[in-house]
């Protein structure tokens, strides 16, 4: 025992943690935005496509879901540049990885959401003379988004936590900041206490805000 | 290139064995701890319920990587010296336990209240109610998500490579360090993880279908 808590060094380097937290949020927001695009496109394509396309989309989803995120992060950052001739920063690489990762989870979310839209709504859309495109944009997608909103917020929260894996390729997000302070000051317990609190506070604040949004949309209907 | 990979295969197999061993330990330990704490959460007195709730919400609210580093670097600072292997197993087990608690709460919560009341009415003790009435029914709801969660344990175990434990992930990185064949080895690693986890998720789906006759 005999370990005395001393937070002074943590506060002195707090900019590393604060900047890290902001970067974590940024990574999560950008990745889920791209992930939503991927998920929407593939889900809409999936429900209207033939067998071959469905197999390919399902293969993408199953591959991503069954492989550790850290391996995907390494594969895109260290592996991919050895076979294709593009250079990118660690941060870009991580955003690409996390987007593809969240895209795979969101295809599933949106696909089941699309299938949960009541048949009667689509028939009603057809009855009032909407084109297939109008039925998709004005009937199916809005209803589907409302259904999938809770799953969407859960995905965002888990992505926010997943951004910690970016530290393995030295993206200076919150976990990286924690390790930096850990290795430079040895105030191990303090830094992880502070970082734990930061993840918890941010995560639950986000959860609270997202639940408000969900309630707002449920009330509208 | 293929020759180098073939040469590395026995080494990768050792790493794979460590991955499976870590996953197995985590899954078994968290099952015991999670079921006990889950019962505490559902049936325990208020202070115990709060303690379990706080434990579960805290653990599930932080990244698993932070938990691993916290346990690995933090425990020695307070005088507890664990080998890196056991520190990693402890951290992953804490994380998985929180999930098991929630699976159990969900499964037990889905059993209609009348079942418990009927069991009470015929004079069964608390233990008998759990063993003969609640658990046999809750089991069918617990099993599919739990098996699905085993894939999370296998995937999560890849993070122990960061503590220098030579699991499959670390073995792959070491082979790449020697051969510079990054892409083929990462793909090989992905295929191995995929094979294990996909088999588990298929099993989970099959069980779900098998138990789908149960109605609310």
From TrEMBL, chain A:
Its main location: membrane. One of its GO terms (biological process) is amino acid transport. It is a multi-pass membrane protein. The chain crosses the membrane at residues 20-47, 59-80, 191-213. InterPro entries: AA_ABC_transptr_permease_3TM (IPR010065), ArtM/GltK/GlnP/TcyL/YhdX-like (IPR043429), MetI-like (IPR000515), MetI-like_sf (IPR035906). This is Amino acid ABC transporter membrane protein 1, PAAT family. Coiled coil: none annotated. One of its GO terms (cellular component) is ATP-binding cassette (ABC) transporter complex. Residues 21-210 form the ABC transmembrane type-1 domain. It holds the Pfam family BPD_transp_1. It is found in: Cell inner membrane; Cell membrane. One of its GO terms (molecular function) is transmembrane transporter activity. Belongs to the binding-protein-dependent transport system permease family. HisMQ subfamily. It comes from Mesorhizobium muleiense. Keywords: Amino-acid transport, Cell membrane, Membrane, Transmembrane, Transmembrane helix, Transport.
UniProtKB/TrEMBL annotation, chain B:
Keywords: Amino-acid transport, Cell membrane, Membrane, Transmembrane, Transmembrane helix, Transport. CDD domains: TM_PBP2. It comes from the Bacteria. It is found in: Cell inner membrane; Cell membrane. Residues 16-204 form the ABC transmembrane type-1 domain. It is a multi-pass membrane protein. The chain crosses the membrane at residues 20-43, 64-82, 183-203. PANTHER family: L-CYSTINE TRANSPORT SYSTEM PERMEASE PROTEIN TCYL, MEMBRANE COMPONENT OF AMINO ACID ABC TRANSPORTER. Belongs to the binding-protein-dependent transport system permease family. HisMQ subfamily. This is Glutamine ABC transporter permease. The lineage of its organism: Bacteria, Pseudomonadati, Pseudomonadota, Alphaproteobacteria, Hyphomicrobiales.
